[in-house]
Design brief:
By secondary structure, this protein is an alpha+beta fold. It contains 6 helices and 4 strands, in the order H-H-H-H-H-E-E-E-E-H.
Length: 142
């Protein structure tokens, strides 16, 4: 297995077909998912470059809060937001892992990558926020 994503700049320069590029990305991401190493994708140069561009273009503002009329640019520690959320989750749509946009069922172009604050990101992933989950989990407490 390759240690990094396809170098998209190199591939584009030599003029490969976009479908070949996407197929390679999908195969790589699916390998990472199978190996439980998807974190490697988020450390790739291609993802980091795209993430920085999205954060800059969206002014480090949480797009979910912004849709509600709230401006959130900083986390609880006073640092600019650094989280970019995939609307189409990578595990479900690996072909969109490096895509800023997607076309919805009505044929409209939509943002696939959104700057989000921690609270909104947790909500988007149905994670509980600082409270214990309800109901029995297990008897072990380690």
């Amino acid at each position: 297995m390759s240690s990094g994503l396809l170098n998209l700049n190199h591939v584009v320069i030599i003029g490969h077909n976009v479908n070949v590029i996407m197929q390679g990305i999908c195969e790589y991401i699916n390998q990472l998912i199978e190996a439980d190493e998807l974190w490697k994708f988020y450390k790739s140069k291609d993802w980091i470059r795209l993430k920085r561009q999205v954060l800059s273009d969206q002014h480090h503002e949480c797009q979910v809060c912004k849709a509600k009329g709230i401006v959130t640019r900083y986390d609880e520690n006073g640092k600019l937001l650094q989280t970019v959320h995939h609307v189409n989750h990578v595990r479900v749509h690996p072909e969109l892992a490096l895509s800023r946009y997607y076309v919805d069922e009505q044929g409209h172009k939509q943002e696939n990558l959104l700057t989000v604050c921690k609270v909104c990101h947790n909500r988007l992933h149905d994670r509980f926020e600082g409270s214990k989950p309800s109901g029995f989990m297990n008897t072990e407490r380690w």
